[in-house]
């Protein structure tokens, strides 16, 4: 599969983490966002990482700022568990 990366569409600093959101589309027209971050790992909160990333399809059609805020909120909830 091939992806077209359109660049950073949102960024935020929150609780010692930095986040960037890249907008990506695949070859069949689906829109994806790739969340890139630095600081505390979203996969293992006890680890501090220079950089990490993951991608998600934008199923709900959220605007970039809203999508990134929702992802940050999810990470706060995971940190609390």
Describe the structure.
There is one protein chain. This protein is 21% helix and 52% strand. With 81 residues, the protein is of the alpha+beta class. It has a four-stranded antiparallel β-sheet, covered by helices on one side. The chain is globular.
Helix-strand layout with pairing:
Blueprint (H helix, E strand, L loop, with lengths): L2 E12 L2 E10 L4 E10 L7 E10 L6 H17 L1
Antiparallel strand pairs: 1-2, 2-3, 3-4
Characteristics:
alpha+beta, 4 strands
Number of separate strands? 4
What pattern of helices and strands is seen along the backbone?
Answer: EEEEH
Global Rg: 13 Å
Mean pLDDT: 84
Main beta-sheet strand count, sense and barrel state: 4 strands, antiparallel
Please report the number of helical segments. 1
Determine the structural class based on helices, strands and strand pairing: alpha+beta
Q: How do the strands line up in the largest sheet?
A: 1-2-3-4
Sum this structure up briefly.
By secondary structure, the chain is an alpha+beta fold. Helix content is 21%, strand content 52%.
């Amino acid at each position: 599969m091939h992806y077209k990366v359109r660049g950073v569409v949102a960024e935020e600093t929150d609780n010692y983490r930095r986040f960037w959101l890249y907008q990506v589309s695949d070859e069949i027209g689906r829109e994806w966002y790739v969340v890139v971050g630095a600081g505390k790992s979203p996969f293992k909160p006890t680890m501090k990482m220079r950089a990490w990333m993951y991608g998600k399809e934008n199923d709900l059609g959220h605007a970039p700022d809203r999508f990134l805020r929702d992802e940050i909120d999810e990470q706060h909830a995971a940190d609390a568990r």
